From TrEMBL:
UniProt main location, coarse: membrane
Gene: LOC115251980
Pathway it works in: Glycan biosynthesis; glycogen metabolism
Lineage of source species: Eukaryota, Metazoa, Chordata, Craniata, Vertebrata
Protein name, entry field: Phosphorylase b kinase regulatory subunit
Cited InterPro entries: 6-hairpin_glycosidase_sf, GH15-like, PHK_A/B_su
KW Membrane (keyword) present: yes
Functional note: Phosphorylase b kinase catalyzes the phosphorylation of serine in certain substrates, including troponin I.
GO-annotated cellular components: phosphorylase kinase complex; plasma membrane
Organism field: Takifugu rubripes
Record GO terms (molecular function): calmodulin binding
Keyword Membrane belongs to the record: yes
Cellular localization per UniProt: Cell membrane
Keyword entries, A-Z: Calmodulin-binding, Carbohydrate metabolism, Cell membrane, Glycogen metabolism, Lipoprotein, Membrane, Prenylation
One GO-annotated biological process of the protein: glycogen metabolic process
Length: 614
């Protein structure tokens, strides 16, 4: 265990004076020394992961924390690309990030059997672990001792993977790794229906061991799916077999679920600071500006304090009233934490970054001014971000009587050798942005921060989620199942084609496309069976496919025959087609031109009341 002797109780104001005319090289050198001292010195030389606690006895590494540390090193490397003689630092920083990303990939791939199980049964006991041994990559905690089901962590890994590859880094090396990433996408696609434990690893706000559907997890999954859809994992050197496929219908269900959940975080969480990285950097998962503003306003109004943001209301984490000997809370115990929730300065940093991305200089200055008095200085002279500020036990009663009346004290991080690496990484990234050493487009090369209507295609992408157009062209093809039916329809002036007349284009039912997808990302060495047999929805059947050199189109699932008698009801089928057509036209404009096939069957058309179908 880490020793808590020598805790810091009074933050020290930074004494580092920066000259206005400081040369670019000196600025970068100052940031390099800060990143090297406060982050990279703690990176594992074997796996590339970063420990949760920086004391020598801590052997745990969390995926989420390591990802932000890798992003910090990567961001500084992007800044060094702007100068000619970087003394090898660009290479060092880039490959520190690559080593971390590949370390996480290594840990994940060792659990390929769990990925396969999770595809079939997405339960908390069959998911990827979120904590690993920092030196070996081994599992640390069994499922009964730790809440590993955190979809946001896997989604964040996929998102940063795309961002870094798009910036020119080579992270994925062979087809085995491509297959594994594709199977991770299969897992993330169903985030909209998989309750998890969320960013805080507690699930329900009441900390009783139950899972919930979290907006932060669904939002990050949506962002990851949008980023990786059609992306080439080998970068500019790849070809079609290194491209990732995303089920657009699954993505759309995540989008709809997120829109319906926000501005709430979950059933028990009214709002939560975990939404900040979802609605802003790095995910930018919300397309609706009004919904973004409503969610952000609620977070700021309910959670902001003098020393940072509360994670959520009545959060007992590290408070004086929390029983450290119990994992879960008792019923109604939450009221003990009212008004004394710990405040986390890291969310001031998220707000600074958000201000930079949105061009809001007033917001950047506001949160920079709030942050400066509550950070302190290491022995080496670098800024140190406390993990949280808490109310000591002696002040709890007075604070609960009058919220905000008592002084809070920083957590045990900083000069005693214990650094909150997640906070340090984000702080360095934010300062690089504020000092304009990097720009938003540098750390977001796939342009997630750009409004959807202004986005353009991204290189290394085979399938593009393009700008939303106001006028959408909907192409409809009427296919008669036989020549006899074609002649009959022609007498009413209805022009159709038969499947034979459209050759070499092949027309498949969606269930045949499902069978073809079963071979996607199959890898016997890793024990991965490919895409589960999930139906292809309305958006998926609106696309044109190229399979083994053949051009394939599919008719919607509503035309599939069923033994259930309602499928033979013509009027019900007409209504289903109308709904499917309107839905497909509305949603497909987010991805591609809408293309729909109407399969006309004799048993339906020749029915006395079936002409409404046409």
């Amino acid at each position: 265990m880490c020793s808590f002797s020598g805790s810091i109780y009074e933050p020290l104001k930074l004494s580092i004076l920066q000259r206005d005319d400081e040369p670019l090289w000196e600025k970068l050198d100052r940031y390099y020394r800060a990143v090297k001292t406060t982050i990279l010195n703690y990176q594992s030389p074997t796996t590339g992961l970063f420990p949760v606690k920086t004391c020598s006895t801590c052997k745990e590494a969390k995926v989420r924390d390591s990802l932000y540390c890798a992003a910090s090193a990567w961001a500084l490397a992007l800044a060094y690309r702007r100068i000619d003689d970087d003394m090898g630092r660009t290479h060092e920083l880039e490959h520190s990030a690559v080593k971390c990303m590949r370390g996480i990939l290594y840990c994940y791939m060792r659990q390929a059997d769990k990925v396969e199980q999770f595809k079939q049964d997405p339960s908390p006991t069959k998911c990827l672990h979120s904590v690993f041994n920092v030196d070996t990559g081994d599992e640390v905690h069994p499922y009964r001792d730790y809440h590993h089901l955190q979809i946001d962590a896997v989604s964040l890994f996929l998102l940063y993977l795309v961002e870094m590859i798009c910036s020119g880094l080579q992270i994925i090396y062979n087809t085995d790794e491509v297959s594994f990433i594709q199977n991770l996408v299969f897992c993330v696609e169903r985030a909209y229906r998989v309750p998890d434990y969320g960013m805080w690893e507690r699930g329900s706000k009441y900390n009783n061991g139950s899972t919930e559907l979290h907006s932060s997890s669904v939002g990050l999954a949506k962002a990851a799916l949008e980023a990786i859809n059609g992306f080439n994992l080998f970068g500019n050197q790849g070809c079609s077999w290194s491209v990732i496929f995303v089920d657009l219908d699954a993505h759309n269900r995540n989008r709809q679920t997120l829109s319906s959940l926000l501005p709430r975080e979950s059933r028990s969480h009214n709002t939560d600071a975990a939404l900040l990285p979802t609605i802003s950097y790095p995910a930018f998962a919300v397309d609706d500006d009004a919904l973004y503003s409503q969610t952000l306003d609620k977070i700021v109004r309910k959670l902001r304090g003098k020393y940072g943001f509360k994670r959520f209301l009545r959060d007992g984490y590290r408070t004086a009233n929390e029983d450290k000997n119990r994992r879960y809370y008792k019923p109604a115990e939450m009221k003990l934490f009212d008004g004394i929730e710990c405040e986390f300065p890291i969310f001031f940093i998220f707000m600074m970054i958000d201000g930079v991305f949105r061009g809001n200089k007033a917001q950047v200055k506001e949160y920079q001014d709030l942050l400066e008095p509550i950070i302190f200085q290491s022995y080496e002279g670098h800024a140190i971000i406390p993990k949280y500020y808490y109310v000591p036990a002696d002040f709890v009663e007075a604070e609960q009587s009058k919220h905000g009346s008592q002084k809070r004290f920083p957590s045990n991080a900083g000069r005693d050798g214990k650094i909150f690496l997640w906070g340090q990484a984000l702080y360095n990234l934010a300062k690089l942005l504020v000092d304009e050493l990097i720009s938003p487009k540098d750390i977001d090369p796939i342009h997630r921060y750009v409004p959807r209507q202004d986005q353009r295609n991204v290189s290394m992408r085979y399938s593009n989620q393009g700008p939303i157009e106001n006028d959408v062209m909907v192409q409809v093809a009427l296919i008669a199942e036989s020549q006899r039916l074609q002649v009959f329809l022609n007498t009413y002036g209805i022009q159709t084609q038969t499947p034979q007349q459209v050759e070499p284009i092949q027309i498949w039912p969606q269930k045949e496309l499902v069978k073809a997808y079963r071979f996607l990302a199959v890898n016997k060495k890793l024990g991965l069976t490919g895409r589960p047999e999930r139906p292809v929805g309305c958006i998926g059947t609106c696309k044109i496919y190229r399979i083994l050199g053949k051009t394939v189109v599919c008719y919607p699932i509503v035309f599939d025959l069923s033994d259930f008698y309602l499928s033979q009801d013509v009027m019900l089928l007409i209504d289903d087609i109308k709904v499917s057509h309107i839905y497909g036209a509305h949603q497909c404009r987010r991805f591609t031109r809408s293309f729909s096939i109407f399969l006309l069957k004799a048993c339906l058309v020749l029915h006395s009341h079936s002409f409404g179908l046409i």
